[in-house]
Amino acid sequence: MANVQLPTINPDQDIEKLVKQLLNVYIQLTEELMFLLNNLDTKNVNELNAEVITAGSITADKIQARAISADKLDVNELSAISANLGRITAGLMEAVEIYGSYISTNRYGYPKVEISDTQDMVCAWKSYNNAIQVFSPSDMFSPIIKFITPVGVAYIFYDLEDNVLAITSNTAGIRLSTMRKIEFNTPEGVYINGVKVNP
Amino acid sequence: MEPWTNTPNKVKPIIVTLADGLNQAVESIEIKDSQSTAVVNMDSSYYPTVQVRQGYSQILSHTGYINHIFKFKDFWYCGNNKGLYKRDGSSWVPVFEYSYTDNDLLWRHAMFFDGSKLYFVNGTLLLRQYDGNTVTQVSNGPFSHYITTYMNRFFSGTKGDNSLSYSGLRDANDWTSTNKYTGTGEIVVETEDGEKPTGLTHFANHVILFKRYTMHKLFGEDSTNFSMTQPYAVGCISDRTIVPTRDSLFWLGPDGFYDYMGGAAPTKISDQIKRYIESINMDYAQHCVAGTDGCFLYLSLVTGSATTPNVTLKFDLQTRGWWVESYVATAYYLDGTTMYFATTDGKIMRMGGANDNGVPINWSIETKPFSEDDETVRKAIHKLWIVADVETGSTLKVDYAGGAEGGSWVNVHNQTNGSGQIQSIKIPVIVRTPETWFRLRLSGTGPVKIHRIIREVSRRGA
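Predict the joint structure of the above. Result:
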C-alpha cells in the first residue's frame, strides 16, 4: 500500500493545536511506515538487486513460465540438465553421440530414412509402401534386408539354421542378368527344387 | 501622602465572558471564570460571546421512535422502530416494514461508488440494496449490524461475530469471489476480553472496527496484506455516536466521549460533562446518538432509567466547550449546511430560527462561585454591568447568590423586553451579608447575546 495520505497542517493556528496536529501526523506516519515495512510489495519498490536473496531460496513456483531465456543459462553440456529434453529443434549438431533414439529424416512425409533401436532397425522409405528395411528377426536369422513394394515383398538374409544366404519372395521373381558370365563354384553342387544338377 | 482608605475597599472592575461552556470535571470553585456550573440552551457560536442557541422548526412528521434520517436522491428517508420509510409527496412509503414495533430496530445505511444505490441493515436483516424504488437482498450478502464503504469495498461487522467481512473490489454484490487481490474475505478480530464488535467506520484512510473496550485500525488493501494494528484500549458503546469531522473522529466510549485524529491515541473530551456520562443507562447505550453540523457536535445520551435518548449536549469543535440543550434528538442528519434531527415521537426538525417550533427558547446560565482570587475575606458585589444584546421580545433576568453552592437566589434585574441593540446594563446590587464566594445566574426567554459581565466588588477587612 503505497498510497499514504497524511492530513495537511495549517501553520496559521495557535501553537497548542499545531503541536497536537504535528504529534498526530508523526504517529500516523510512524504507523504507515511500520505497515509498509512489514508489507513491502511491488507498489512500494522501484528497483531491487539480488544481494539480499538467500542462496537457494528461489523455488520453481516463483519463476514465471517461459521466463528464462537461453542467454541467461550457463550450461556447458546439456547433460547438466538432468531432464527429458522433450521436443527440441536444432540447427547443427556436431560431435554428438545419440543412444536409444528413434531418428527420422522427415517427421511427416517421404522420402525419409529411419533409425531405431527396435526390431525395425533401419528403413529407407520412398513412400509409405515402397522401402528397403533392415530388421532383426527374433529367430535364427541374421538381420534381414526387406524390400517393401506395392506389389510384394522380398528378403535377403543369412539363414543360420540352414547355413545359406537366402533371397526369397512370395511374389517377385529373381533375375540375374549380366553382359559377362555367371560362375557357380561349389563343391556340393547346385540344386534346383531339391534336385542336384550335374553340369 | 495617600489618604487613609476606609473599608470597604473597592477592587477594580473585573471583566468576564461566559462562553467556555459547562464544566463538571472539577469542583465549581476550580473551573475557569468563563465556564459555567449549569447552562441550558446557550452556546458559543459567537465566541467569546455567549448567546442563546438557534431554534428549530418541524418539517416532517412520522410516528414512533425515529432513529435514522437521511436523504437519498433528493427524497427524505426515516427509519423508526417499525420500518424504513421514504417520503414520497406528502406521505411516507414503506421501503422495508415489519408488522411489529421494536426500539432495537436501529437502521444504518451506506452508499457505494456513484451513489445510485444505497445499502441498509438494522441488525436483523441480511444486507439489502435499494435503488430508490426496489429493495433486493444482496445475494450471499452478510448478516450485518454495521456497514461502511472504503477503498472500493464494502465492510460489514456484526455484534455476535468477531469477523470483519469485506466485499469484492468495486462490487457490493460480490461476497463469494476468492481472487486474492480483488476477491472477498473475512478478517478475524479477536480480543482477550472476548468482546464482540460494537461499531464500524472509516477515517483517515483506514477502516476502524470498535469493540466495547478496544479500537482496531485496519491497514492494507486486499487479502494479501490486510492486517489489524494493536488495538487502542478505547472502545465504543454506540456506533450511532461515531461521527467523523474534517480533523477528528468522535465516538462515545464506556467512560466518555472520545476524539481521535487518526494517529495519536484517542483523547477523552467529556470530563466537563462527566455527570451526564456517569448517568448513561448502559443497558440502552446503543441508542445514544451523535451528529455534527461542522461547528458543533451534538450528542444525545440515554441517562438514568430512560431507554431512548433523553439528554442532548453540544460540543463546540473550536472552543472545546460543552453546552446543554433542552430538546432531545434521536437521530441527526446534515444536508449541506443545514442540520436536521429527529425525535422519539416521530418528528423531523430543521435547526435554525429564533424559537423552538414556535415556542420561545428558555435559557439560563450559572457562573462559577467567584472569589476575586481571595478566599480569606468576605466580599459583596455592589455593581454589575451586563453587556448584552437582548432582542426585541426577549427577556433577561439576573440573579445573585452567595456561597459556593446552594443558598437562595436574589433577583437583581429583570428586563422584560429587549431593545435589539447592544447595551451596557448597569445593575446595582445591594448585598447585606458579604460572602467569600458569590454566583450569578442569567436567564430569560428568546434570543440574547451576553458579551461580558463586569462586576465591582467590595471587600471587608482587606
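Chain A touches chain B at residues 1, 3-5, 7, 20-21, 23-32, 35, 38-39, 41 (CB under 8 Å).
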